[in-house]
Each structure stands twice: as C-alpha cells, then as structure tokens.
Amino acid sequence: MSDKFVVIGERIHVISPEIKEALATRNAAPIIARGKAQLEAGADYLDVNIGPAERDGADIMRWIVPELQKALDGAPLVLDTVNRDALRAGLEVYDASKGRAIVNSADAGERLPNIDLAAEFGAIAIGLLIDKGVPRNNDERNEYLQVILEHSMEAGMDPSEDVWFDPLVLVVKGMQEKQEEFLEFLRILKEMGLKSTCGLSNASNGMPAHVRPVVDSVLCGMSIECGLTSAILNPLEKSLMDTIKTSEVILNRTLYADSYLDI
Fold first, then answer.
1. Measured between alpha carbons, how far is 172 from 158 in angstroms, rounded to an integer?
2. Euclidean distance between the first and the last CA atom of the chain, given in angstroms as a whole number
3. Lowest mean pLDDT among 2-6, 87-91, 140-144
4. Contact indicator for 37, 68 with CB cutoff of 8 Å
5. Which of 2, 49, 69, 244 has a CB 3.0–4.6 Å from the CB of 80, allowing a cystine?
6. Mapping DSSP to helix (H, G, I), strand (E, B) and coil, where does residue 260 land?
7. What per-residue confidence (pLDDT) applies to 203?
8. Of the candidates 148, 43, 153, 151, which has an alpha carbon nearest to the alpha carbon of residue 99?
9. Residue 174 class from Cβ within 10 Å (0-12 exposed, 13-18 middle, 19+ buried)?
10. What is the pLDDT of residues 84-136, one digit of tens each?
11. Angle at 190 between CA 213 and CA 224, to 5 degrees
12. Is pTM beyond 0.85 here?
C-alpha cells in the first residue's frame, strides 16, 4: 500500500487574533491547545505560521518551537514564515525525533535559498511554484519546478523525498477556470515521482461559511486522486477528514473496516 496522505494542521496562524496575541505576549497555552486539538483530529504535522515577523521572528521561533514540541510529545512541525532568520532559529531548536522539520517555503525567486537552509538542517522544503507572482499557466509552473529541482539537487537534496512541491491552489471564486490546470499539474508531479502539497483552504476563500467545507472536501478528494500527497488544511473539519480517509480506502492505501471513519 502507498504512503499515507500527510495532513498538516493550519490553525496555528498569526492571522487569528487569538494566536497573534499569544505570540506577542509569549502565552503558549492557546497555541498548545490548538495544536493538541488538531493532532487529536488526525493531523500529522502542525503548521506554525508566524507571518513576516520582521522585528522578532527569530525570538518567536526559538520560543514557540520547543514549547509546542515539549507539550505535544515532540509533534513534527512546519515552520512557516518569509523571515529566513526566523526559519533558521526554529530549525536550530527543532527536535526531529518524531519527524523532520518542514520549511514553508522556498520558491523559484527570492526564497530559493530556503532550499539550502532546509538542506543544512536535514529538513524537508516546500517548493512553492511561483516567482514574483501567481503562475499564469502550467508552462510557468513547469519553469519554476525546474528551477527548484535543479537547485535542490545542487544542495544535495533528493527531490523525490526532500522537497514537497506546491502548485498553488487558486481561489475558485474568481479563478474557476484555473482549477483544472492545478489538478493537471498534480498529475504531472505524480508521473515524475514527486511529492506535492498545497494550502487547500485557499480554494474556498471568500465563499459563504456553509459552502467552504464542501468545496474544500471535493477539491481534496479530486486532488488526492490526481496525486496530491499532503495538504495544509483544517483537520477539525470532519467532512474534510472523512473525505481523506475515504479517498485512501478507495485508492487501496488503507484497509477497509466498517469503523474506518472513527479511527
């Protein structure tokens, strides 16, 4: 059977007022609570998104990474920021005993050196297939893919294991015609033997609250069939997690049992 789909919990994000305040005041309790809830719901990794954090990003990462891992039995983390100094600080204190750190993210432009940073610390890098803006089509995605592939190999990484490629989910409301291109590029990555990921909830941005879980769940199921191997998503959304579990059963990645949705 194939490797398990990797669920990355998205709910530790500075865009949340609760998380923003907790980071600013160095109050770990609400951050740990969100991490614990996501792990209990089935997350494999926790994304820790501190935003740009230009002033004190390194200090935040040095503080929150050990706090989370100590409280959550070494849970593996995705370190998410555009601040390279903060990424380095987080990697320096990261405990990899339960899983390699993931650097979110490198791209084909200014953040390409994040590949080198991930390689230095034995981490996985997310390779976002952009340069200065949103890719116009799959030809541009492929150009960016080649840049990241070449750089990762020069850094001594195995692109089939050490880099997870993100073709960039675009919002359905306003870019409906772009969704088929995203799915097609997942097929391309699968055929190349490369792992993939995405920020799944980007697809439903701007939609009514009752619509978002439907769109996210359907896109997730379609994406898994096309080759998606992980995603940053909300594991507390039961319909979404049920979709992932059912996709893995249908694709013969996990054994069927009547209670499979309860696991």
1. 33
2. 18
3. 2-6
4. no
5. 49
6. helix
7. 96
8. 43
9. exposed
10. 999 999 999 999 999 999 999 999 999 999 999 999 999 999 999 999 888 99
11. 20
12. yes
Is residue 92 classed as helix, strand or coil in its secondary structure?
Answer: helix
Beta bridge partners of 233: 9
Question: Is pLDDT of 1 > 60?
Answer: no
Q: What is the tens place of the pLDDT at every residue in 172-204? A: 998 999 999 999 999 999 999 999 999 999 999
Strand partners, 7: 231
Q: Which of 130, 68, 115, 133 is nearest to 94 (CA)?
A: 68
SS3 250: helix
For residue 7, the model assigns a pLDDT of 98
Q: Is 44 exposed, middle or buried (0-12, 13-18, 19+ CB in 10 A)?
A: middle
Give the C-alpha separation, 114 to 48, whole Å. 16
Please give the full DSSP string across 112-162, using - where no structure is assigned.
TTHHHHHHHHT-EEEEES-SSS--SSHHHHHHHHHHHHHHHHHTT--TTTS
Question: Average pLDDT, stretch 41-64?
Answer: 97
Question: Looking at residue 2, what is its pLDDT?
Answer: 57
Other CB atoms within 10 A of residue 141 CB: 23
Asked if residue 167 lies in contact with residue 141, where contact means CB atoms within 8 angstroms, the answer is: yes
